[in-house]
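Page 37, continued from 36.
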C-alpha cells in the first residue's frame, strides 16, 4: 500500500505533541494582488468570485471525459475562529469541522488540552484584554480537489499563513499574509494553509470550497520537530499579548509599516 493510502486522520481537537519543539516564524507581509500570485487572489465580491474545481484524475492512459469529473460543485458556510484559554479554536460549517488550531504559547507551558466542549459556541471567551500576538500551529493542509474562498463577515483584519504547492513542504516555506478586512482571500487548489485567523479575539468568515473536500496534511511537530509561529500583530508585548487592529487608525498604521518591510 502506498504512503498516501496509509495517511491517518489527524486528531484535530487533541493533538499529541512532544515538549521542546522549535518555533519557526512565518514572516508577515501585507497581502497584495502581486504577492498573492501563485497562492491566490484578493476577493472583493464573494458572491461572484469563482472557485476552481479540479477534474477527477484519470486512472490510466484514457482521459476523463471533458464534461465529467468536476461536477461535485462547492459547499459553503461560516468559518469561525476564537481564542479560548490560550488556544485558538476553529469551526467550519461548510465541512462540519471542529479544530484546535494552535496556541499563544508552547502547549507545555501549562495550557489545558481541548475537549468536546470546544465545539460549543458558548465556549468562546470574549474578555476585553488584547488578543495574543501570535498563534503556534501544529498542522497545515491543502485541498487537491478545489480552491477555497474566505471573506471577513465583520470586515476586521485577519491573517492567513500559506505555502506554495509541493508535498516536500517545510515550516520555513510559509509566509503569513495580512489582510486589512476590506477584502477576502481566494486560495488556489494545492496551496498549503490552515484556516483564517483573526487579529482580534474572534472572527467569522464566509467560506466556499470544493464539496469533495480532499485534504492532504502535514504535522509540523511529528515531521519537523517544530511549531509554525504565525504573527497576528506587528508589535508584540510581553506574555504573548499584542496590538489589536480593530480600529481604523491601527489598520492604516499597520499597512504603512508592513509596506516598508
Amino acid at each position: 500500500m502506498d504512503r498516501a493510502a496509509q495517511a491517518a486522520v489527524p486528531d484535530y481537537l487533541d493533538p499529541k505533541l512532544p515538549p521542546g519543539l522549535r518555533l519557526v516564524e512565518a514572516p508577515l507581509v501585507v497581502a497584495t494582488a502581486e504577492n498573492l500570485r501563485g497562492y491566490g487572489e484578493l476577493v472583493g465580491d464573494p458572491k461572484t468570485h469563482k472557485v476552481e474545481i479540479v477534474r477527477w484524475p484519470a486512472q490510466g492512459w484514457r482521459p476523463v471525459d471533458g464534461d465529467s469529473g468536476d461536477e461535485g460543485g462547492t459547499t459553503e458556510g461560516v468559518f469561525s475562529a476564537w481564542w479560548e484559554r490560550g488556544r485558538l479554536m476553529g469551526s467550519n460549517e461548510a465541512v462540519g469541522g471542529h479544530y484546535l488550531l494552535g496556541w499563544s504559547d508552547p502547549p507545555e507551558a501549562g495550557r489545558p488540552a481541548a475537549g468536546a466542549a470546544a465545539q460549543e459556541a458558548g465556549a468562546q471567551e470574549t474578555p476585553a484584554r488584547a488578543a495574543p500576538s501570535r498563534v503556534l500551529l501544529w498542522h497545515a493542509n491543502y485541498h487537491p480537489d478545489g480552491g477555497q474562498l474566505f471573506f471577513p463577515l465583520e470586515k476586521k483584519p485577519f491573517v492567513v499563513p500559506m505555502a506554495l504547492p509541493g508535498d516536500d513542504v517545510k515550516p520555513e516555506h510559509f509566509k503569513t499574509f495580512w489582510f486589512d478586512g476590506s477584502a477576502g482571500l481566494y486560495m488556489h487548489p494545492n496551496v498549503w494553509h490552515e484556516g483564517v485567523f483573526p487579529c482580534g479575539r474572534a472572527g467569522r468568515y464566509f467560506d466556499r470550497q470544493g464539496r469533495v473536500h480532499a485534504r492532504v496534511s502535514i504535522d509540523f511537530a511529528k515531521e519537523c520537530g517544530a511549531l509554525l509561529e504565525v504573527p497576528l500583530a506587528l508589535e508584540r508585548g510581553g506574555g504573548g499579548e499584542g496590538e489589536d487592529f480593530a480600529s481604523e487608525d491601527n489598520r492604516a498604521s499597520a499597512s504603512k509599516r508592513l509596506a516598508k518591510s
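Residues 91 and 98 are 4 Å apart (CA to CA). Flag for discussion at group meeting. The helical segments are 220-224, 248-259.
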